[in-house]
Design a protein that fits this description.
Layout lengths: L1 H8 L2 H11 L3 E2 H8 L3 H13 L3 E6 L2 E6 L3 H15 L1 H6 L8
Antiparallel strand pairs: 1-3, 2-3
Helix pairs in contact: 2-4
């Protein structure tokens, strides 16, 4: 389960969406504008985050408003960024995890 937990965070788009939603609730349209992907791709990423329990959607007519469910997500992202910064050289040199193209 822990590996699956981190897999959900391992996608750069999902991580950007989570960071965007930490500031507050946003519509799908705002999320699309933020990440610059199609509505379909953003909806798939938001559905994954919702299925995994990171975000929740609130319906208002035709619109869905997404928000982070657990405030500990912010702590997790801050800690991850700090750890990544402290290990930047090792992460950059790691050849076992292929860079995204």
């Amino acid at each position: 389960m822990v590996a699956k937990f981190f897999r959900a965070l391992g996608d750069p788009t999902r991580l950007r969406l989570l960071e965007f939603l930490l500031a507050g609730e946003h519509t799908v349209s705002e999320c699309i504008a933020h990440v610059g992907l199609s509505q379909g791709r953003v909806s798939v990423h938001l559905a994954c985050l919702a299925d995994c329990g990171y975000v929740a959607a609130r319906r208002e007519g035709r619109f869905a408003h997404y928000r982070v469910v657990d405030p500990r997500v912010a702590d997790l992202i801050v800690l991850a960024r700090s750890l990544a910064a402290d290990n930047c050289a090792a992460l950059a040199a790691c050849e076992r995890i292929a860079p995204r193209t």
